[in-house]
Amino acid sequence: MAWILLLLAGLFEVGWAVGLKYTDGFSRFWPTVLTAASMVVSLALLGLALRSIPLGTGYAIWTGIGTIGTVIFGIVYLAEPATVARLVCVALILAGILGLKLVSGS
C-alpha cells in the first residue's frame, strides 16, 4: 500500500509542478488554489508512504515521478523539445527509480 501512496504522491507532485506554470506567479486565484491543494495532498501522501518506505528511497522516487511526469507533460502539452538528450536523461531517471524500488527490500 505504501508504494501506491508514493505513486499517487508523485502524480500529485506533477499536478502542482504543472500548476505552477498556470498560477502566473500566484496571481491567478483558481490555479493557485488547485496548485496549493495538490502540494498538500502530495506531501500528505508522501508522509504516509514514508512510514514504511526508507526516507532516501521514498523521496528520490517521489521527486523522480514528479520530474518524469512534468517533463512528459511539457513535451506533450506545451510543445517542449523532445530531444534525444532529454529523453535519455528521463530514461536514466526512470532507471534510477526502478533500481531504488528493486533494492529497497520493502
Automatic annotation (TrEMBL):
Subcellular location field: Cell membrane
Keyword entries, A-Z: Cell membrane, Membrane, Transmembrane, Transmembrane helix, Transport
Domain of life where this protein originates: Bacteria
Gene Ontology molecular function terms on file: transmembrane transporter activity
Pfam families in the record: Multi_Drug_Res
InterPro entries registered for this protein in UniProt: EmrE-like (IPR037185), Small_drug/metabolite_transptr (IPR000390), Small_multidrug_res (IPR045324)
Transmembrane parts of this sequence: 29-50, 59-78, 84-103
Protein family: Belongs to the drug/metabolite transporter (DMT) superfamily. Small multidrug resistance (SMR) (TC 2.A.7.1) family. Gdx/SugE subfamily.
UniProt cross-references to PANTHER family, sorted A to Z: GUANIDINIUM EXPORTER, SMR FAMILY PROTON-DEPENDENT DRUG EFFLUX TRANSPORTER SUGE
Name of protein: Guanidinium exporter
Organism: Thermohalobaculum xanthum
